[in-house]
Amino acid sequence: MRRIAIIPIDNRPVTYLLPKQIGEIDKNTEILLPPRELMGGLRTQADIYAILDWLEALENVEILIISLDTIAYGGLIQSRYCNNTTKQIMTRLKKLKNIIAEKNLRVYAMSSIMRISNNNVNEEEKPYWAMFGRRIFEYSFACHKAEETGLKEDYKRIKTAKKEIPEEILEDYLETRKRNFEINLEYLDWVKEGIIHTLVYSKDDCAQYGLNVQEARKLEDLTHDNKEIFVKTGADEIPLALLCRAMNSTRKQKIKVLPVFTCIEGTGEISNYEDITVFQSVKGQIELAGGFMIQDRISLSSIKNMNVEEKYGADLVLVVNNFEGKQGELVLGTEADKAGEAFTMPPLPFFVADIKNANGGDNYFVESLLKYLPSEKFFGYAGWNTTGNSLGSAISCAFIKFNSERVNREMFNQLQATRFLDDWSYQANVRWELKEENKSLDLEVLKNKMGTYEEKIKRLFRIRDDIKYTLPWHRSFEVEVEFDKLG
Asked: Which of 304, 415, 424, 318 lies closest to 364 in space, CA to CA?
């Protein structure tokens, strides 16, 4: 039995529960997590030293998947607003480094490049973001753009934005960025020393220009010759990709994936919250998970009469339900304009990334997909949050199932039931209905509305458990699907 320790980003279902669900699709793998009460929440910092004590006490563990932000700052969100000094952070990291060395752990790590959101919502930022978030974004955007273009109008934008931000607030923001970037540079030394085997710097919520984009490019310049250091668009899915990469590291041949798209014209579009095209995102996520992407651009409908295995030597088909023009955003109640193709059964084992809309599945596509399930060729579905989130989790699930000598079918079925109930039933339908009725946090109404979808999903994935729903961060953005054994 292979034992893998994971220190997640925080305590949300997709960051805390999902890695265990995906990893334990392989019956020969046990995923070890810190007690959930130690992890950070929306406005609560992780109990950092208790997590380090937990890690130190583990036995017979060779691999560690870690969000370094959890130890450095108390969590990904906390990295944006915690006021700890560099010295305080380095003290914690030194203890982590010593534990890794003493236990001789093979470490797959991620660290975030601090994001810059382009709104005045301070739910995940410092309090002053409520008044100055957009202005700080504008300042950041203009600083980078002016450096790139040298145009007077861009330098003028810097001055204009700077005048609208109180000096002490801008100074605090820039100092926080500087601190986080210095910590990120420290991890490069850890790689050189062999403390970290694989390191991913994550870019979350990117625009074309910004201080965060500048930092990403500096890190790319410093690491371009190291094949185990990545600068990647995304966040929550990255630990899943690293878990997959670690579990597949002993495999001689990389899994060959043929992506097919419901909208070929949209493969060059850029998704919401990302700074790369859909095609580039697919390629990057496959490679980070340790796979190989066959790079032809093929439509889903065209593979019906194609001998995919003979022509491409593919192991798996990735069906991408994508968009043309602008990606929809279901949290805001907007759907992508163009309806894509209905699902068509590929000739090889397949899995699905449903990215036509951000933050939820595409009803038309999902309903056509469910007509073909259950199927032995089905290796998973995901359609949550961003393009990177959906791709990364779908790829990791499919790869681990493909490589498993002993597949835990109950875990796989439970995972897929969760994804369809969360990504499709809740995110694409029930969440919006609750909002319209002004009952977004009413768990009883939520449960009743989910019942319509539950019946179908439980039948398809042979779920006999009772299903409960909670809102772990006391907001409607994420739901937790819980399975309770009956009797």
From this structure: 424
The three-point CA angle 357-43-208 to 5° equals 45
Judge contact between 241 and 289, C-beta under 8 A.
Answer: yes
Task: Name residues whose C-beta falls within 8 Å of residue 329's C-beta, 6 or more positions apart in sequence.
Answer: 272, 357, 358, 359
Structure-block tokens of residue 16: 């805390």
Residue 299: the pLDDT is 93
- CA dist., res. 322 & res. 301, Å (int): 14
Candidates 243, 240, 176; CA nearest to 390 is 240
Low-confidence ranges of the chain (pLDDT < 50): 487
What one-letter code names the amino acid at 439?
A: K
Using CA atoms, how far apart are residues 481 and 420, in angstroms rounded to an integer?
10
Cis previous bond, 259, omega within 30: no
Q: Inter-axis angle of helices 86-103 and 48-57, to 10 degrees?
A: 10
| 262 DSSP assignment | S
Task: Give me the domains of the chain, ranges plus CATH numbers.
Answer: 2-115+171-247 (3.40.50), 256-407 (3.40.50), 425-487 (no CATH)
Is pTM beyond 0.90? Reply is yes
